[in-house]
Amino acid sequence: MTFEQESLHILAESMAILERGFDRLPDLAPELDPEAMRAVLAETAVRLRDNDPYHHPLYIGQMLKPPHPVARAAYTLAMALNPNNHALDGGRATSAMEKEAVARLASMFGWETHLGHLSGGGTMANFEALWVGRELRPGKAVAASSQAHYTHSRLSDVLGVPFRKIPVDPLGRLDPAELEKTLRGGEVGTVVVTLGTTAAGAIDPLPDVLALRDRYDFRIHVDAAYGGYFRIAGNLASLAREAFDRIGEADSIVIDPHKHGLQPYGCGCVIFRDPAVGRFYRHDSPYTYFSSNELHLGEISLECSRAGASAAALWATIRLLPPDPGGHFARGLESCREAALAFHAALEADDRFAPLFPPALDIVVWAVRAGSATESSARARRIFEAAARLDLHLALATFPRPMIEPAHPVLNWDADTIVCLRACAMKPEHREWMPEILKRLHAAADA
Ligand SMILES: Cc1ncc(COP(=O)(O)O)c(C=O)c1O
Question: In what side-by-side order are the strands of the sheet with 417-424?
Fold first, then answer.
């Protein structure tokens, strides 16, 4: 058995507790044809088999992590009511849970006051941060590294804001000297600092960007959609530690509970240091909907309807596994990082592979040694496919020559990029499964 099922019984118990809160109401006969539903659900289950085993440690490809059973159960429990966190009228309890959960994330970054909310995902969360940046620095550009998530250039386009792509160093980190060249033009209003890039897990040098902010006028938005929870991990190397230690000096932060926070999709989160930015969200609401003077989350969010169930799931997860340094949740992140370090060490020792650099968090990227860049890419693709046939699921990522060259995987650079293999060791179990993962990787490379 690979799916956890015990929580289904606990869910039934908590459903009975929820039901007691409404037992004053006249009974409702359930409108359900169990036989028809059974047939359709069986069909659904069969359709869902056409997926890679995202929940299993042998899946170590994309940034996918199974939600914790408590998150799944709390989400399903809330679905009995299907609250809408647009307004207190549609989701009173879950709005309060959302405010508490977001405050807990903000306090992880050292913010006692803040303005923030959950969102459909990292894209919407980053959108709001860039939009607020545009309102505060009208006419100015957004700058982000060439390894930042592509969403930043696309969102800048949507916002009608110029975008400046800043080159990276060989470790895939925004190059502060290159950033300064652009800042000198005086045209940048917001700098995106990514703590945990999507492809390689690189950590931009936040302390250097903070030093530049003392001399140039711009806002700092930290995109920690993937990496944010590593703030509480105790086993980071010094460059990452120094960046995370100063994350609270940014103007806004995005962290995605649906990446490393054990949540179902879609659960992103944007947080602003200065609560006064709430003024930009002001709108003419239909007053009948916002029916109390208390803050409705729809008044500080661009999205209107949002799943209250997401807030219930995150709140329950934080209750069970508080994001405290040294706690059980933090140890889970540390295990992911240990898995990535062990993976990297094993790749270093294998003369078929050329890992790009030690993982800053828990993403490992490596090129396959070959005579030429084109042949290296072709070999990576073959290993990727052979591994999948052995039920080891990796990912592919293309990197530019300057990020790969220090690893010397090829002699003949007949292309400017190489397709590399990539693994996101995002499950704590990856640490114990590493011998099996390596066994299958070797078999795939020999195939
Ligand atoms: C650093 C970073 N920012 C933004 C995003 C976009 O987030 P989402 O896919 O939740 O919209 C991702 C997704 O992987 C990411 O890694």
Answer: 353-355, 363-368, 417-424, 395-400
pLDDT band, very low/low/confident/very high, at 282 (cuts 50, 70, 90): confident
For residue 285, the model assigns a pLDDT of 66
User: Is domain 328-446 annotated with CATH 3.30.420.40?
Assistant: no
Q: Residues with beta carbon inside 6 Å of ligand 1?
A: 63, 121-123, 126, 149, 151, 194, 198, 223, 225-226, 256, 268
Cα 434 to Cα 46, 50, 429: the distances in Å are 30, 25, 9
Q: Alpha helix (H) ranges present in 79-150?
A: 92-108, 122-136
Which residues, at least 6 apart from 248, have a Cβ–Cβ distance to it below 8 Å? Answer: 109, 110, 111, 273
Domain with CATH 3.40.640.10 in the chain: 92-320
Spell out the CATH class of 92-320: alpha beta
Cβ–Cβ under 8 Å, residues 263 and 317: yes
Instruction: State the Cα angle at 247 between 214 and 101, rounded to 5°.
Output: 140
The string of pLDDT tens digits covering residues 83-133 is 999 989 899 999 999 999 999 999 999 999 999 999 999 999 999 999 999
pTM above 0.90? yes
Q: How confident is the model at residue 291, as a pLDDT?
A: 65
CB atoms within 10 A of CB 155: 22
Query: Predicted confidence band at 396 (pLDDT cuts at 50, 70, 90)?
Result: very high
Ligand 1 pocket test target in 119, 123, 247 with most atoms within 8 Å of CB: 123
* Chain segment 200-243, per-residue pLDDT in tens: 999 999 999 999 999 999 999 999 999 999 999 999 999 999 99
Protein residue with least CA distance to atom 7, ligand 1:
122
C-alpha–C-alpha distance, residues 169 and 224, integer Å: 19
CA of 361 from ligand 1 middle (Å) equals 16
- Where do the CATH 3.90.1150.10 domains begin and end in the chain? 328-446
Distance 47 CA to ligand 1 centre (A): 27
pLDDT at position 408 is 97
Q: Length of the chain, please?
A: 447
pLDDT above 80 for 293:
no
